[in-house]
Design goal:
The chain is of the alpha/beta class. The protein has two domains: 59 residues, no CATH class; 186 residues, 3-Layer(aba) Sandwich (Rossmann fold). Strand 4, helix 9 and strand 5 form a beta-alpha-beta unit. The longest helix has 28 residues. The radius of gyration is 23 Å and the shape is elongated.
Length: 248
C-alpha cells in the first residue's frame, strides 16, 4: 500500500508529499492524524514550489549581483542619498503602480547593487525581471533585426515586469540604437516598470540619445513616471581598497 501511494504521488509530481510521507512513516510512535499529515504535506509542497519558482525567476533575471538583497544595502557608507525614499521603494509598491526608478551617481557608488537588490525583491514577489546593460540591449536588438526576431524580442521585453537598464549613458547611441531603445520603452510605458542606473545627469540625456525628437520621447516615457534617487559620494570600491591596505 505504501509503495502504491508513493508511485501515485510520483505521477502527480508531488515530491514533497513523498518526503513528508516518509518522515511520518519512519516514526512509528507519532500520533499525527490524517488532517495534520495532509496539512504538513501541502505546506511543504507549497514552499518547495515557491522556492523553485524563485530560483527560475532569479536565473532568468541574470542580475549582475545575484545575491544582492535590500536588507543588505549598507546605509552607513559615506554616500548621500534619500535613504527614507529607498527604504520605501523596497516594498515595491512602485511596481504595482507601473512606476520607474532612476538611480544616478558617480561610478562605484552602489547604483547597480541597489538596482539588483530591488530586482531580487521583485523576483521574491513572483514577477519576471531582466537585467541588461544598455549597450548589450542595443546590440541584442541590432542582431534581432538581422535574424528576423526583432518583433519577437520586443514582445518578450514588453512582458517583463521589471527591466533593469544598467550603465545608461556610457556610449552615445547611434541612429538605430536610439530608435530601438524608444521602441522598447514605448511598449513598456505605463504597463511595466524600468530601473535605470546612470552616471549621466538627466540634463545631459539628450546628448547621449543624440536626436532631440527621440530624446524628448524617451525622457517623457522614463523621467515623468519615475522616482529619482541621486547618490553622492566617493566610490565604494575606493573605500574597500583602502580597507584592504589598512588590514595588510
Amino acid at each position: 500500500m505504501k509503495l502504491h501511494t508513493k508511485e501515485q504521488l510520483h505521477k502527480l509530481k508531488l515530491a514533497s508529499f513523498i518526503d513528508v510521507f516518509d518522515e511520518i512513516m519512519a516514526n512509528a510512535n507519532n500520533d499525527i492524524g490524517l488532517e495534520q499529515a495532509l496539512g504538513m504535506m501541502v505546506q511543504r509542497e507549497v514552499i518547495t514550489r515557491e522556492n523553485k519558482r524563485l530560483d527560475r525567476l532569479l536565473k532568468a533575471a541574470k542580475l549582475r549581483y545575484p545575491s544582492a538583497c535590500v536588507a543588505d544595502i549598507d546605509y552607513k557608507q559615506p554616500r548621500q542619498f534619500n535613504q527614507a525614499q529607498l527604504k520605501e521603494l523596497s516594498y515595491c509598491e512602485w511596481l504595482t503602480k507601473k512606476k520607474n526608478i532612476i538611480l544616478s551617481g558617480a561610478t562605484g557608488t552602489g547604483k547597480s547593487y541597489i538596482a539588483c537588490a530591488l530586482g531580487q525583491q521583485v523576483c521574491q514577489l513572483g514577477h519576471k525581471v531582466k537585467y541588461l546593460r544598455v549597450n548589450r540591449l542595443t546590440e541584442q536588438l541590432r542582431l534581432s533585426h538581422a535574424d528576423g526576431s526583432y518583433t519577437k524580442t520586443l514582445e518578450q521585453l514588453a512582458k517583463i515586469s521589471l527591466l533593469i537598464l544598467d550603465d545608461w549613458g556610457i556610449d552615445q547611441l547611434d541612429r538605430q540604437g536610439r530608435r530601438d531603445l524608444l521602441e522598447v520603452l514605448e511598449d513598456r510605458y505605463a504597463k511595466t516598470s524600468t530601473i535605470i542606473t546612470t552616471q549621466l545627469p538627466i540634463e545631459k540625456w539628450h546628448h547621449f540619445i543624440g536626436d532631440d525628437t527621440i530624446a524628448d520621447a524617451v525622457c517623457d516615457r522614463i523621467i515623468n513616471n519615475a522616482y529619482i534617487i541621486n547618490i553622492q559620494g566617493d566610490s565604494m570600491r575606493k573605500s574597500e581598497n583602502l580597507t584592504m591596505v589598512d588590514t595588510q
